[in-house]
Structure formats: structure tokens, C-alpha cells
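User: C-alpha cells for this one?
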Amino acid sequence: MSDSNKTQKKLFKNAYWLFGGKSASGIFTAIQTVIVARMLGVSDYGLLTLVIAYISVLNMFFDLKVWETATKYIGTYLEQGETDKTRSMIKLSYILDIGSGIIAFIIAILSAKLISTYIIHTPDAYVLIWIFSISLFIDTANSTSDAILRVFDRFKNIAFINSFQKLFRLLVVVGLLFAGFGIKGVLYGFILASFIGFIIRMWIVVKTLKDNHLEGWLSADIGLIKNQWKGILWFLGNTSFIATLKTGNERYLGVMILGYFAGKDAVAYYKIASTVASLANKVVDPLYEAIYPELVKFTSSNAIKDFKKMIKSTTKSLALIIVPLTAIIIIFAEPIVRLIFGTEYVPATNALRILAVAVLIVRFTFWLNPALLAMGRPGLRTILGLITTAFYLILMFILVPPYSYFGAAFAFLGYALLRSGLALKFFNDALKAEKKRIKES
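Assistant:
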């Protein structure tokens, strides 16, 4: 078996574990969403969504999204046999992760009352924001921890942690809801599950590092990689910025803008539609996480043919799953919403169809981000993110005031079309530059 085939086999094995974990997590989250939406009702579910969205927006802006940078540099130092620098990069990654989480937590506490009054339009919602902001502090180191597990091919462990945490959260949230704790009970369940997930994740990380003779990273000297700080910060700045834009576009910015212009009910309908439409992400996300380390190895060894082959084969395999899935969602949108979430959420049906098409379009270019990063082109990804985000926000402000959640769905469709078109152009430009670099080296 060729090295390319072996790598591809390992990729799909890792993606299989991630897919299994995310599928289980997705099932638990879907059940939780249905129960919470039914028990809280449209108005309270909309309020809960806005509270979670605000904390997530804060986390989105201040979280440095260290995992991509940590994966690249920890993996590179490890491949080069530089264990001391590997320890230093691990320590630096945790420092950046924890520092950004603390900043986000403080801002959440200080801004809660203003956001409750002027954005969410529910003055006493600040208490809910204070409660949920605790999760920012608990989850702050998870990005680096997961990067370490990816570098050492511990995808099975990642799958276990994610699925167990979501199951635990489901059980606690449902229990607290039936006990009469309402929205606060849901948030308490989220926080407790985050704490349990953090403890398990750190235990596995410590064991993994010990097994690979990398214990003692807490006392490592980050000055050992001082000469690489500029490159690390440039890479981190670009990946963090674009991840913020991507997460905002696909999950939270629309919710916050919609909440401001159209209210809690519109947010609830849009949330239900986006939750169902995003089922394709359960297939795509594992491939993204598994393919990135492999693409880094191909570009490091100048194996561009294998690089292109992997992208092409994974895209074809993906299409066989997400195209039929999208068709099912579009055709059976109304019975899906009616049977699962209840008749009060039926107005979300047409928005669901629009978002399902948009998600399908975006996911066909899932490989763009890891490909550009593997080729050392984070700047191109940043430019793409700036252009598409500006376009998305313009569409949101134009379409949401007159058309509410339907306008938000069409705005995301416009974003998806522009992003996918530009993605192909940017990738071809980067690939030409990479081939030129290899030829000249």
C-alpha cells in the first residue's frame, strides 16, 4: 500500500472516530434541544438562545482559537525531534488560551446589564448572562488540550470526551427542567457538564504527554521558541481572526442582529431552522479536524499531488452523504419541524429549507481553511473572511428589518454563494504559489 493510501486510510479512521463522537454528541444535543424548546416555549427558548449567543459572541471575539496554531507548531517541533520546544509551545498555547478566557469572562460580567437592556430587551436577563459566563472560564483551556490530542492521534479520546459530556449535559439539563428550574436550570446543566468535560480532558492530556515523555511542560521555558514568536503570532492572529468571522457568520451574528430587530420569537424560529439545517456539519467537522494534520505533512514534504488527491477524494465521499441529507431536509422540512419541535415552531419551515441549501453550498468547500493553513497562507483566508463577512452583515441589515428570520436565512444564503465562489479562486491562487515555491526550492 502506498504512503498516500496509508495516510488516507488513517485520515478516514480518525474522521470515523470523530464522526462517531460527534454523531453521538449531535444526537444528545438534538434531544436536548427538542426537550428544552418544548418545555420553555417559543419566548423563553428565544431568550435562552440570545443569552447563550451573547456569551458565545464574547468567546468568539476573545478566544484566540489556539488549536490550529498549536496543532501546526507542536506537530512541527515534535516531527523535528525538538522535545524542549514542544514543551514550550504547549505551555505558550495554554497561557494564550487561559488568558483570553479570563478577559472574556470579565467583560461578560461587566457588560451584562447593558446587553440585557439594549440588545436582548429583557432587563433582568443579566442574571442569566452572569450564570452562563462561568462556562467561559471553565472551557478556556479546551482548545489547546484538543490540539494536543489531535497531534498524538488520540481521536478516539476526543470522541469519548465530547459524547460523554453531551450525554451528561442532556441528563442534567432534563433533570433540572423537570425539577422546575427553568432557564436557569438549563444554564446550570451546561456549566456542570463543562466542568466534568474539563476534568476528563485534562486527565487524558496529562497521561498522553507522560506517555510521550513530555511531562514537565508547566516548567518549560517559552523563551526557547522566542525566535519563532513573530511567526507564531502572525499565524495565530490570522487563524483566530478568521475563525471568529466564520463562527460569527454561521452561528451567532445572525442571532444577535435578528434578536435586536425582530425579537425573541424570531430568534427561536431561526434557531430551530439553523439547528436542523446544520446536521451536515456533523459529517463535515470530523473531516476538517482529521484532514488538517495530514495536509500539513503533505506540504511539509512537498507532496502536492497527494495533497490534491486527498482533497478531491474526501470531497467526493462527503457529497455522497450531505447531498441526500440536504434533499431529505428540504422535502420533509414541515413534518420534521412539526413532529420534533411541535406545531408552534412550524413557521420556521421555509427558513429551514433556505438554510439547508446554504449549508450544503458552504460545506462543499470545507477543505479550504485547512488547505490554506497547510500551505502557509493564513493571510489569504483572512482576506476571504473579511470580504464575505462584510457582505453578510450588509445583507443582514438590509433583509432582517423587513423580512425578520426569512431575511436572515436569505442573507446567509448570499454569504454561502459568495464564500464558495471566492474559495475556489483563492485556493487556485495559493496552489499556484505553492507549486512555484516547490519548483524554486
